[in-house]
Design goal:
The protein folds into two domains: about 10-205, no CATH class; about 250-430, no CATH class. Strand 9 and strand 10 form a beta hairpin. The protein has 17 helices and eleven strands. It is about 45% helix and about 10% strand. The strands form two sheets. A seven-stranded mixed beta sheet has the order 3-4-1-5-6-2-7, with helices on one face. The longest helix has about 35 residues, at about 10-40. The chain is an alpha/beta fold. Keywords: Membrane, Transmembrane, Transmembrane helix. This is DUF3413 domain-containing protein. It comes from Pseudoalteromonas obscura. It holds the Pfam family DUF3413.
């Protein structure tokens, strides 16, 4: 094969490579716009350094994966098959496919909190098909028009770059753009190295936002936060579960709250609510079927009564501590009290618990929350909540047992500060990111949108789709786990020096 500088083959290949660079630059601009969906899916940085890192990573990482896609697809085709018209057409099709996959991944991440993966692709496709079947004709038409718009963009950009290649070669833009991309790439990596070494969460929390980001493991993370003893792990793979009383720190100077609203009866069933019983609930009741709770009954009850993860259960129950938010004796433990050291009844109580097997006769004038018994063999499962309170109506996605009391204090009793200082949970309908943390039977339980993450004390973990139940095969979101562990240990004081 003749590849001398004056051969027609070499000339066409050189022109196509030059055209390919401009074609890639145009697609980098499009990918940068699409990548904004990833940034919008998570909480914004809280510091200027975090914003700088987000900007340079958004520029460099998206540009890098776009350039890699070009090098792996269009570049070898230009060398093997240097026919401009055919290459431009194939490049437009390849780019359209790649951009469409990126759009799909961005949609999945925005809606469910995880990226596409080869292992989970069949289940994710099944999930998406179910969502597509529920789309309106207008939404389907918009999606098809979007696909056509991407293909049209690729064809127009490719043809324009080829026809004006000589003029484009005279521009100095590529030199400056390349220098900017290289600078951003180096800056983002240096900033991440520094942030990882110094545990700067505002940067490291962004690790898993963009596709194909930083991998890491969970064992060092658990050890760093004293959920795993590495020495014991090496010897017997055991975890330090004991939480001495001195390690549980009760907040001081708690805000006062009047609790002027009507009392609320919380009925905790030890079985599922039969269908015929559900039909007896009047039209004022709504049902939320995605309440994520531990299958361990003691942990489940503790979540509901204390508004805290079961990480604190041993310490609190062994020392007979009342709920720390219960500053004015507003709590009553009535039928089937699982915490015998708590009062069976408090006069004029504002929150009444009933642990029972059947729903008692309901008064239309009272406020009720009915929580069904969790059924399952795993660490956590999903159960249903029935209530005639409006505060839970607009909640989308998962909810935890701890969220019930948090929501009541915040929205029903107007005690937002008291809830924030004494409990760990979300206010129903207020958490746009829809994430939470719990702990049961030595397992760290976190969720973010549709993704549930379970981490054992020895570092083994699994990720599950809440809606479909399939395992998600992708790298662990360690920055999110760091945030979850910090939230979990909100009321844990450092152990005193011996």
């Amino acid at each position: 094969m003749n590849l001398t500088p004056h051969s027609p083959f070499s000339s066409k290949a050189s022109q196509l490579l030059s055209w390919g660079h401009w074609f890639t630059f145009a697609n980098i601009g499009l990918v940068l716009v699409i990548a904004l969906a990833y940034l919008a899916a998570d909480a914004a940085p809280s510091s200027m350094i975090g914003w700088v890192y987000m900007f340079v990573t958004w520029i460099s990482h998206t540009s890098f994966i776009t350039f890699c896609a070009f090098v792996l697809t269009v570049f070898p085709l230009s060398l093997i098959f240097p026919y401009p018209r055919h290459i431009r057409g194939m490049a437009a099709i390849i780019a359209t496919f790649g951009i469409s996959v990126l759009c799909l991944d961005a949609f999945v991440y925005y809606q469910h909190g995880y990226h596409l993966s080869v292992q989970s692709l069949p289940e994710i496709i099944s999930l998406l098909i179910g969502m597509i079947n529920g789309l309106s004709v207008l939404t389907t038409a918009i999606i098809l028009l979007g696909f056509i718009a991407i293909l049209s963009f690729e064809l127009i950009v490719g043809n324009h770059a080829w026809r004006h290649l000589d003029k484009l070669k005279s521009y100095r833009f590529p030199k400056y753009a390349t220098a900017l991309l290289v600078t951003c790439f180096a800056t983002s990596h240096l900033m991440h190295v520094w942030a990882d070494a110094n545990n700067y969460f505002d940067i490291t929390k962004q690790d898993n936002v963009l596709p194909l980001s930083y991998p890491t493991t969970a064992k060092t993370l658990l050890a760093r936060h004293e959920l795993l003893d590495l020495n014991e792990y090496q010897q017997a793979r055991t975890v330090r579960l004991e939480n001495a009383t001195t390690h549980f720190q009760i907040p001081s100077s708690l805000p006062q709250c009047e609790f002027n609203a009507a009392p609320v009866d919380i009925i905790v069933l030890n079985s599922s609510l039969a269908s015929d019983k559900q039909q007896t609930l009047n039209g004022d009741f709504l049902t939320h079927s995605q309440v994520l709770v531990p299958t361990n009954t003691s942990d489940h009850y503790f979540n509901l009564v204390y508004g805290l993860p079961a990480y604190y259960r041993n310490t609190i129950t062994e020392n007979h501590l009342s709920p720390i938010w219960n500053t004015q004796n507003v709590l009553a433990i009535a039928q089937g009290n699982p915490f015998k050291y708590l009062d069976e009844h408090t006069t004029d109580a504002k929150v009444n618990f009933y642990f029972t097997s059947e729903v008692p006769v309901l008064d239309d004038k009272n406020a009720y929350i009915i929580v069904e018994h969790p059924v399952g063999s795993d660490i956590v499962t999903q159960t249903a909540l029935h209530t005639n309170l409006p505060y839970f109506a607009n909640h989308k996605g998962l909810m935890q047992g701890t969220d019930i009391l948090v929501t009541l204090l915040d929205k029903h009793f107007n005690c937002r500060e008291l809830a924030a200082q004494t409990m760990i949970g979300n206010v129903s309908g207020n958490n746009e990111l829809n994430q939470g943390v719990n702990y049961s039977q030595g397992v760290l339980i976190t969720y973010k949108k549709d993704r549930i993450i379970l981490v054992n004390h020895d570092g083994r973990h699994k990720q599950i789709s809440a809606k479909e139940g399939f395992h998600i095969e992708q790298k662990m979101d360690i920055p999110f786990l760091v945030h979850s562990i910090k939230s979990l240990k909100k009321f844990t004081a450092k152990a005193p020096n011996p």
